[in-house]
Amino acid sequence: MNRRLLAPAGLLVLTGLAQMAVLVGIHGPARVAVVFAFLLLAPGWPMVSIADPPLGLLARLGLAIALSISLDMLAATGLLYLRLWSAELAVVVMAFVVVVGVIIDLPPTRTVLLRRASSVWSALGTERRT
Predict the structure, then answer these.
(1) How many domains does the chain fold into?
(2) Dihedrals φ, ψ of 52, to 5°?
(3) 55 in the Ramachandran plot: left (φ > 0), alpha (ψ -120 to 50) or beta?
(4) Can you say how many angstroms the Cα of residue 40 is from the centroid of all Cα atoms in its chain?
(5) What backbone phi and psi angles, to 5 degrees, belong to 85?
(6) Is residue 87 part of a domain?
(7) Using CA atoms, how far apart are residues 108 and 37, in angstroms rounded to an integer?
(8) Which residue range(s) make up the domain with 39?
(9) 65 near 44, Cβ under 8 Å?
(10) What is the pLDDT of residues 27-66, one digit of tens each?
């Protein structure tokens, strides 16, 4: 498997495990470990990968954890505000965020998005800085 696809595949596997643990009703330490790992790392990692900052692995990991916690809190606050709070729904919302982030980060999608963005920039009459 291509190294570029290893992290997205791992994120999707972790997302699937967390979904199974929550929606099937698995209880105990295995559920806590899987869901905690999912919520701590999975939502932020695709965002860090999309942004591709010039950082080392540990800095990327720290940034992914910070973004994950922020996204988790944003989803929880939104669900509370809408009076739809449910732990299961919160995990489903975060799984949706992860899947969309992984799809956007895939090389073919990224190529199409960059091509479209550059055409928008040129239509606006501004040069895009890289």
Answers:
(1) 1
(2) 50, 60
(3) beta
(4) 11
(5) -60, 130
(6) yes
(7) 28
(8) 3-124
(9) yes
(10) 889 889 999 999 999 999 999 988 888 988 899 999 999 9
Could you give the CA distance from residue 7 to residue 73 in angstroms, rounded to a whole number? 24
The answer as to whether 102 is a domain residue is yes
**Among 102, 79, 119, residue whose Cα is nearest residue 16:** 102
Other CB atoms within 10 Å distance of the CB of residue 79: 16
Asked if residues 48 and 42 have their Cβ atoms less than 8 Å apart, the reply is no
* CA–CA distance, 51 with 41 (Å, rounded to integer): 16
Which pair of tokens denotes residue 71? Answer: 């996204």
% of residues, the chain, pLDDT over 70: 93
CA distance 7 to 34: 17
The identity of residue 112, as a single letter, is V
Q: Coil, strand or helix: which one is 56?
A: coil
